[in-house]
Structures are given as C-alpha cells and as structure tokens.
Design goal:
The chain is of the alpha/beta class and about 240 residues long. Helices cover about 40% and strands about 15% of the residues. Helix 1 packs parallel to helix 2 and helix 7 packs parallel to helix 8.
Length: about 240
C-alpha cells in the first residue's frame, strides 16, 4: 500500500480570516499529535491561499497546500483565471484537476482536463486527477467504461517523467455532498479497476484516493475494506 494521503478541499468556503483560524487550529492539532504515517494537504479558495501558506510557513505546520483549479494558460487575457506560476510563487504544491464540480458547472471537458494536467505537472506541481461517474451512469452499469474513458483522455501520451506527479481521486458524483457514500465493495471494485487501467498507462504505483461524503466514521472501513490510499475530503474537512 502507498503512504496514505488525505486532502481537505475547502471548496468555496471560509474567507481569509476564517481560513487563518482553521489552519492555526490544524497546526495545534498536528503539534499535539504529529502525523507519522499520513500525508496531509489542504486546498483553500484562491483568495485564502497566501494567508494559509503564511501560517504554514511561519508556524511550521506539517502539511502542504493545494489549489482547487489552475489555468492551462501561463498568462494573458484570461480574466478570472489563475496560472500555475502564480500558484508556485505562493508555495502551492498540489492542484486539483478535473474536479466533478469543475466538469459539471464550468464546462471542463476531458480535453481541457488533459491540457490542465499537463500544464500542472510540467511545472513540477503535483496533480490530483479527479474521475467519477454520475448516478445515471452507475445505474446503467457503464461506470467502469466511463471512468476508463476519463483516465485514457487525461493520461494517454503523458510524458513518463511527469507520471510520478499524478495522483488519482475517484469521486462518484452521486456521492458528493449528498450524504450518500459508495459501499466499501463498490469503492474497492472501482479503485482496483482504476489501478488496472492506470497500470496499462504506465502508472503502476499511482495513489488512488476516494472522495464522496467521507467522514471520521466511515474513513477506516474505506481504507481497510475499500483498499484506497487516502481521501479527497470535501465538507467534512471544514
């Protein structure tokens, strides 16, 4: 098993004052009970990143900081976008790529996901590639084919030297923010399938996370029985 990774995606929550308060609280928790066997990443909104990284650096909080999205462009007339180089200057080391909300709400196609993934890893940041199906796809029993297509679209042709920077997060859309959670058997079957597809694309040792209404009560079972390498946590991370 890979070293477990837990990523807290704050989504569009917490202004910079609230963000500072939360990261300071996390710092106290981690100093009192250091994480010896788990990697930890927090992913705040763009406007909070500088405040969060300042606290992480000044108080030496044992975690890394990620961004929820990044532009495929390095600079230019792209109002509202944020480039990877801008994130690097803020000491961001992780970027979520193709989160289901970006795909569904902001027309992020498989092609844009692939371009974004390459933009992120070529500049040395770690990318968390998000894949997962909607309920209608699951009910039609097309979930494996759907996720396979997402993986191929994003990873085919990716230069071998960048592949160690990729982590995959399986997030069934029907289990995000709904209170529904995939059963440990469903999670195990899909994560094993993802590993098989990833291995066929020369990502044999990739970490596979699970995201979808994860909380403190179901986390242990998902790791032990679902065979995941960690979590992409949404609301519960707050």
């Amino acid at each position: 098993m890979n070293r477990p990774l837990v990523i807290g995606n704050w989504k569009m929550n917490l202004d910079y004052v609230e963000a500072v308060h939360l990261i300071q609280q996390l710092g106290v928790v981690l100093k009192n009970k250091p994480l010896e066997h788990v990697d930890l990443v927090v992913v705040p909104p763009f406007v909070d990143i500088r405040s969060v990284t300042s606290v992480v650096e000044s108080e030496r909080v044992a975690l890394e900081v990620g961004a929820q999205h990044a532009s495929v462009h390095d600079a230019g007339a792209h109002t509202g976008e944020v480039s990877v180089s801008m994130l690097q200057r803020l000491n961001v080391t992780w970027v979520l790529v193709g989160h289901s909300e970006r795909r569904a709400m902001y027309a992020m196609t498989d092609e844009v996901v692939a371009q974004t993934l390459r933009t992120v890893v070529r500049q040395g940041l770690r990318a968390v590639l998000c894949v997962g199906e909607e309920l209608s796809v699951r009910e039609a029993q097309n979930d494996r084919d759907f996720v396979t297509a997402q993986l191929h679209a994003a990873l085919e042709g990716l230069d071998e030297k960048w592949r160690p920077l990729v982590t995959i997060a399986y997030e069934p859309v029907w289990a995000i923010g709904t209170g529904l959670t995939a059963s440990t058997e469903q999670v195990r079957e899909m994560t094993e399938h993802i590993r098989t597809v990833a291995a066929s694309l020369s990502l044999g040792d990739v970490r596979v996370l699970y995201g979808g209404s994860v909380n403190a009560e179901n986390a242990a079972a998902l790791v032990n029985e679902g065979h995941v390498d960690g979590f992409l946590v949404g609301g519960a991370s707050l």
